[in-house]
Write a structure and sequence with these properties.
Strand content: 15-25%
Largest sheet: 8 strands, mixed
GO molecular function: oxidoreductase activity
CATH architecture: Alpha-Beta Complex
EC number: 1.8.5.-
Bound molecules: ligand MTE, molybdenum atom
Family: Belongs to the MsrP family.
Number of domains: 1
Distance between the termini: 17 Å
Enzyme class: oxidoreductase
Keywords: Metal-binding, Molybdenum, Oxidoreductase, Signal
Structural class: alpha+beta
Length: 310
């Protein structure tokens, strides 16, 4: 990948918890809610956010860190480009086309998709293939809830995702650094796993545009590039879908891309990672198999050679 290990930032010293609690109090106030200008569905969904049982107790990164050190090549290659450029993206109205091997295909508006959905807080470790990591408090809901609602047909084996293609608002798409639109995919059992979520917010706020507004995938045991942003298309299929980084460089980026300290990237070690935050110095920590989610997900890969299926 181009521009891996990019620029350093000036980190904020705000305690994430304090900010978090303040925001929550704000959200509880009716006036604040009206002031957000969110659609009714979104506001209602936010009020219903409940703590999830799958969260790590590790200290989350600050919102400043999470929104100023990003990979979103539609808005540029540098870590600070998305924060600078993503504000031009129109995210309302937004809809997702769901098709392929489903009982109820269609184009679903975001409000419709979120109707009756209970958003959970999921504080997940997030590990980029470039060997940096964060802890991010997502708000979202299991992808399985959506898939169950549209009815997955019996022959379906994979789920394919696509990001919005809109070069007028996504300057990165005007150059051919990747084969646009950005594409990702999961095996159906991975997609149905309770840890796999569609996230619509961070720290109780609507998803920042640089993080994949208004809705993105989060698969915490896989390298970050599997967690595709700003999704407009979900398709159920019986064939392993094409995925962007695998198409770009199949030797370096596999379809599975489970976090695995035993399988190095051809150009760097995956044994440890740089945890973003904590002042100017990011500390190095050991990388955990399946990013620490092995108890929950190792069973999905029983009998598979993970060196071969990297
Ligand atoms: N559409 C799209 N999704 C994407 C990317 C991208 O460039 N385009 N980058 C991926 C990579 S490499 C990572 S590490 C994460 C970064 O998510 P974050 O910026 O919210 O931390 O988004 C992933 N999803
Ligand atoms: Mo990444």
């Amino acid at each position: 990948m181009a521009s891996r290990f990019a620029t350093d930032l000036k980190w904020s010293d705000i305690t994430p918890k304090e900010v978090f609690l303040n925001r929550r109090q704000l959200i509880a106030g009716a006036g604040a809610l009206a002031a957000t200008g969110l659609g009714a569905g979104m506001a209602e969904a936010r009020l219903k956010t409940v703590p999830g049982k799958y969260s790590t107790s590790e200290k989350p990164n600050t919102l400043t860190e999470i929104t100023n050190y990003n990979n979103f090549y539609e808005f540029g290659l540098d870590k600070t480009d998305p924060a600078r450029n993503a504000h031009t993206l129109t995210t309302d109205p937004w809809s997702i086309k769901i098709d392929g091997m489903v009982d109820k295909p269609g184009t679903y508006g975001l409000d419709d998709l979120l109707k009756g959905v209970t958003l959970e807080e999921r504080i997940y470790r997030f590990r980029c293939v470039e060997a940096w990591s964060m802890v991010i408090p997502w708000d979202g809901f299991p992808l399985s809830a959506l898939l169950n609602r549209v009815g997955v047909q019996s022959g379906a084996k994979y789920v394919a995702f696509r990001t919005l293609l809109r070069p007028s608002e996504m300057p990165g798409q005007r150059s051919r650094i990747l084969d646009w639109p950005y594409r990702e995919g999961l095996r159906l059992d991975e997609a149905m796993h309770p840890l796999t979520i569609l996230a619509t917010g961070i720290y109780g706020e609507p998803m920042p545009k640089q993080d994949g507004a208004p809705i993105r995938l989060v698969v915490p045991w896989k390298y970050g590039f599997k967690s595709i942003k700003s999704i407009v298309h979900i398709s159920l299929t019986d064939r392993q879908p094409e995925t962007t980084w695998n198409m770009q460089n199949p030797r370096e980026y596999g379809f599975y891309s489970n976090v695995n300290p035993q399988v190095d990237h051809p150009r760097w070690s995956q044994k440890s990672e740089r945890r973003i935050g904590g002042g100017l110095f990011a500390k190095r920590v050991d990388t955990l198999m399946f990013n620490g989610y092995g108890d929950q997900v190792a069973g999905l890969y029983k009998g598979m050679d993970l060196k071969k299926h990297y």
